[in-house]
Specification:
Structural class of chain A: alpha/beta
Largest interface: A-C, 44 and 44 residues
Oligomer: homotetramer
Radius of gyration of chain A: 21 Å
Order of helices and strands of chain A: HEHEHEHHEHEHEHEHEEEEHEHHEEEHH
Shape of chain A: globular
Number of helices of chain A: 14
Helix content of chain A: 25-40%
Chain lengths: ~400, ~400, ~400, ~400
């Protein structure tokens, strides 16, 4: 059901291309975009070989998103040791490698019933690009291995911008990342902020933002972390979350505060954006602008009864994407208000998955195979939707 | 990837037939079962026309499970009014009907952009069997409509046994339900208890059980209900949950107590079963017995780090079933202990979905198309697994 | 242990006057304040007769706070019917009245073992002032009864400003409320905002504020309300919370957004205040200003390990105030940052109790017995601390 | 308001001696008990000097409970280092000591503004008995210090029975603990089970019990621990909780299972007790039996709307005990059912405080000053109630 033939439409991830129902409607895109899309099918000449270093929460999702594309393939994924998580890789048919090069650690997989194809260096030897999804902050050590192996590398938002030397989000700086040696796909929060703020900035020419991130304290599959019944402010104010947007779009003047709350589903952003005089926008035209941009879902809470992150996630389960993921940012239509020059809005962020399609786009940027970010986004999203059988 | 050819194995829902990894292994079944499976592919002669009355949490899941089968099809689903939930039906290609026969209510769908094919009676007129997934206790009124329309009917566990006149769970009384006019698929809790207790009873010849149900207080998509920070005992003791097992297997002597707790994911049962003298079982042989029975997943919490319902649900998301559902009962291998004649164990129940495959089997029972419950179960489960693309 | 003799200090509610430990230290107050305090003990000539209409969550707390004062007394409290809550009133020695004037409803108390002294009108006949703590929005009807009875009245923040005609918070507009017929003590959130914003405004002469209220979704004793696992944005943006500050201090230009989260303990405010040029403040001087104002507790999260609302409430339990209440606003010292003209800070609000001392002060304002708000505050707080035995 | 004069009643902790309201009624005790009570006031000749080693969650509560008694006093409490928690001790007037004997560690208190009276050995030198409330399992090392210093010692339930050599709960084995060198006050769960099971056992002569403990996953002041949204079964079955009852009453045949759930307030026990033939009890007589025993509160959930642990804790806050504690076990009257020989009931346990009065009784047992456990209980409870000003 992916975008096929001469279709001049693309779609939010939430639906097939020409889907036009009340709530799952596709978006008509601007002309420039259409041109790019037309060329898309003829340009593919190579299949990019992608390695996943760290097949966990993010790694398993990136692997499937890559697997869904016709211009790239998973050449291997790493696990630190034979464990439960290996089974998923085997079921998916992704070759297993060991995170380490140590022969004993590699040999430990066999007796546990898993075929291990070697250590990290063996995997890098056959890869064009590696997506580093390792937990914690082992990035610096890994970067050296990637550089030595001569493969392009993508880090995740948990690593520092300075280490990677470059950051990425599809809507903000795809062009700057073209043919770079490596980059860092920014965090779920930064990615979400970029989705709505970058088009706003591009319209306005300048933008000042204050936002509060109400963060889920733990992921759904994490039963260790609390709090069970408390609100935990991030006492370093302003927090690092907002300013991280400036690693991909330095022109946006943004600060943030953050709290963690006892929920596992999504982050929620409470955003106040100060637009410059003469912005010429209305609440409605802001909504229209976002609707014309990818990976933003806008729904009316009052009409749909989607009034909390619980119902947003239920909607994501209904859509049928793997793991009940929601790659898009969710904006409540009735929670947006432009009051003079001040824009207030809420958006919900699925922390486990919103960066997944950005990783795919980042691969195309580093490999230099698609210069138009909107073309890459449309291609990525259509393939993921098709992969999930909708 | 469903069961194909002359395979003499069937599988827990969690994997394709000949999957044999460490944690997602299939089960070898007993001989009698194998015979049934061989005949399965040749027996289908008709396609059962299934109506879903109430396309909500349970209805949408039953619809997809029916849609996955090759011997039945969804002939229509009902909604009370044009609303957000209609889109999912449209996307799936299920004909929409109105829950009511009122012409105004039927007419209200068109202006909202949905094609409504008529009222409930119109739907019943073209159906062989209706699965009643309406909320609340409107069963008695509905039953009259079903009987008048001459269609077979299946109620859910929220309705009383007395109203339906018959109850059903695949492992307990499929045979008694053959060709019945209607039945009630018992609740998620009763279905879960039947899965592990019926084989135990059948081995032992008698069984006395005391259990405590630690229930999730609200479903994941429900943001209204509490408590946020409390334990709520069901003060009617013993509770109705355990004794409901006796509607499908009256020989099991069972009582229960129940509490609701602030979680949305799964129920957890804490079970103490008193076996008769001379039962001849060991902890290991009980586990083996359950492994040889369908829709029971047994994993070792210590080995897999699946130590809470959060990790169980994460595992379900990895498996890739729609909505992150887990149709199987989850039993912790290291939480089972047979101490003399007393068997202690925990099991986790995915309240939104464990009854889904039972509804499919119940359709076959009422329609009289498959007398062997294990054959029906194997057919149902293989089709669902294939439908979910694993 | 209350303030005694010629002490020239007053104290935050959290400690006795000359307490000077590391974390529970008292504050030295400004000269004007000292003068007022000196006169305090000689001025009392009457005992104000206070009625509580609605002896529930707020009512029971206001009653005890009034009972603690030497210039007022509880003349009676109302309950709608004989119930569990009556026992607390009896234990406290507060005369019970019926919320209604209906003779049958009044008579219903006796057989249940409670002495009922009459209906609401009987209570109003012996009262000087009534504190309306009735739930929901029955204010308009009640107001008529109060006016007819010729008693002063105080509503709570759940009622609209327009109905009461006047609003109150100790630090903002005590003087304007002197001798008024009635007023409304603003909500817990507005009271909390006033505590920190009013002194800031008074220093700066103008103030613009954007804040996000992260609200507890239900009170600790409420097991009905959810959500269990979701964030619920208040889709009306800007929300009503911030602008309510302008009912007591119209000069502050403030907007707010709000979300509800699954916790019961406290609200948390994430505040961004834009100071005018030439404010002359530093992060440290802002902290000093707040320390010199009453009902603000400032602690360093890093030093005390009080890093979430859970530990704040544990601290409140240690302090020993009834119900584990915290009348003060809690500000994290290490969560305050003045960055140029922009001030960022977090504060936590105990929604069940922060308005309690304000109700006592409001009684003095309406009765015209104390014109200096700081004198009233010091008197109120010292009496409450003494009442709680610290 | 403590027991005064020749009163022949004693009271549950929840109320003053001759309090007789609907829900806060006192209990009439049996004759033997009355005799003991009469002697109580004349027997006191010494004041027991009590040291608290570890002034934390349990330590601070035990200290206040001891401080409330007229036959014992707090001679000192220990902290590991100068910290926030020291202030509470200073406010209370409890002499501060260092947990260690190291001079540098002792010296560190002074510069932080606290007077430290020495190390642990200095404290032991002036104590008759030490209550060990240190966290973790440092008991063995501490025991040696206590024995060497020649002081009696009381450990908490976190330590093993074997280490202490003796266990204690007031209703089960006060007599066996008379004049012992040391003992272990059993855990909150075991204490709670003893309260209701011991009288049942003593009536029946034999008792077999299966119970499920639904445990709060973290204390209210603990924001670190999860799970946020999961049920965590204790996979070791049967769990250690139930059998621990046998350290104080070996004749009770008991097993248990346990789960942790995302709440902070209370544990809830779901209990099935199998009574021997000829027990002669009814649901009502069981309730009467418990009402005649101390530290059990029985309320009807339907009548009082106390239907979850949230409302139980709210009731505790209303009662006015420090920290909102509930020393009593809470049994729902309408959640008790004797069905033939099988007794079903729920009880809620305030994990932070139910063992506190037992520690006081244990001091009297070890010091040999009161041989009648009911006399000690009545004395302990009346003093605590008075201390809390009710």
């Amino acid at each position: 059901m992916a975008s096929s033939g001469p279709s001049h439409k693309y779609t939010a991830l939430s639906g097939p291309p020409d889907f036009d129902l009340r709530y799952w409607r596709s978006s008509v895109v601007e002309e420039a975009f259409i041109d790019g899309l037309d060329e898309q099918s003829t340009e593919k000449v190579m299949t990019i070989k992608v390695a996943i270093n760290g097949y966990g929460t993010i790694g398993k999702r990136v692997a499937d998103a890559v697997d869904a594309q016709d211009d790239m393939e998973i050449i291997g994924v790493t696990k630190t040791r034979p464990s439960f998580g290996c089974d998923l890789a085997v079921r998916k048919g992704y070759p297993l490698y060991c995170t380490y090069n140590d022969v004993d650690k590699i040999a430990a997989f066999e007796p546990a019933g898993y075929t291990c194809h070697g250590g990290l260096d063996d995997l890098l030897a056959v890869a064009d690009v590696v997506v580093d999804c390792s937990p914690g902050k082992v990035g610096a050590a890994n970067k050296e291995a990637y550089v030595n192996a001569g493969v392009k590398y993508i880090f995740q938002g948990g690593e520092k911008h300075a280490m990677a030397g470059m950051s990425y989000t599809s809507s903000a700086n795809h062009a700057e990342n073209m043919n770079a040696a490596g980059t860092r796909v920014v965090s779920c929060n930064t990615t979400g902020l970029s989705r709505t703020l970058v088009p706003l900035y591009e319209h306005c020419g300048s933008l000042k933002v204050e936002c509060t991130m109400i963060r889920r304290a733990a992921d759904p599959g994490d039963s260790k972390k609390g709090p069970i019944n408390a609100i935990k402010p991030v006492l370093k104010v302003p927090s690092h979350h907002g300013p991280d947007v400036m690693t991909v779009k330095p022109e946006i003047d943004i600060n943030s505060m953050a709290v963690a709350v006892p929920t596992t589903l999504m982050h929620c952003h409470s955003i106040v954006a100060f637009l410059p005089e003469g912005h010429g926008l209305t609440t409605q035209s802001v909504l229209d602008m976002w609707r014309a941009n990818p990976r933003i879902i806008i729904m009316n809470g009052g009409e749909t009864n989607i009034t909390t992150t619980a119902e947003v996630m239920e909607y994501a389960r209904d859509i049928g994407r793997k793991w009940g993921d929601l790659h898009e940012i969710f904006v409540w239509e009735d929670g947006v208000k432009l009051d003079g020059n001040t824009l207030y809005y809420f958006q919900a962020i699925h922390q486990e998955s919103d960066v997944i399609p950005e990783n795919v786009d980042a691969i195309r940027a580093l490999m230099g195979t698609e210069a138009n970010w909107k073309v890459s986004v449309a291609k990525t999203d259509a393939a993921i939707s098709a992969y999930n059988g909708l």
